[in-house]
Amino acid sequence: MAEALIIVDYTNDFVADKGALTAGKPAQEVDTRITELATEFAARGDFVFLPTDIHVAGDPYHPETKLFPPHNQENTWGRLYYGQLAKWYAAHDDDSNVFAFPKRRYSSFAGTPLDQWLRERRITSVHIVGVCTDICVLHTAIDAYNLGYDITIHADACATFNPDGAKWSLDHFKNTLGATVVSGK
Length: 185
Hints:
This protein is an alpha/beta fold. The chain has a single domain (about 5-180), classed as Isochorismatase-like (Rossmann fold), CATH 3.40.50. The protein contains seven helices and six strands, in the order βαααβαβαβαβαβ. The chain has helices at about 10-15, 25-30, 30-45, 85-90, 115-120, 135-145, 165-175, and strands at about 5-10, 45-55, 100-105, 125-130, 150-160, 180. A six-stranded parallel β-sheet has the order 3-2-1-4-5-6, with helices on both faces. α3 packs parallel to α4.
């Protein structure tokens, strides 16, 4: 049975030192692990999904406009994938098992075709990585739980700018969502 790796929001704005809403060094430190996982999943014929936050400059209707500085705006450097993942994606963007798509909410499922794509491929198990552990990774995991997927969170491939939020989220994944939380190879 095929599995899916969901790489949430691993972009310059969330990871790079000059990113508009960066998690900085903790996010940069998971670059290698995220890329290793993407390589692993693609090599064995599993699926890799790259949902990426997208915003329109000056959008007064999006709720994040009131909460965060402008970030991941369409057609900007900030919305491009960061580091090794950027190179990996450039080499795999034509692969039939790699899908990049925009998302407009914290969850990778909200308003996107992700659930449909997973079900069409008979995928029941998702592995989730990326940033921010306590925001977009968390909301993606909650929706995956509510939709009935088996969830694995790779703690060594998630990061956030809030260490307390990360700890709480990892506990929540395990104790409330019944997710498997792993770290290391």
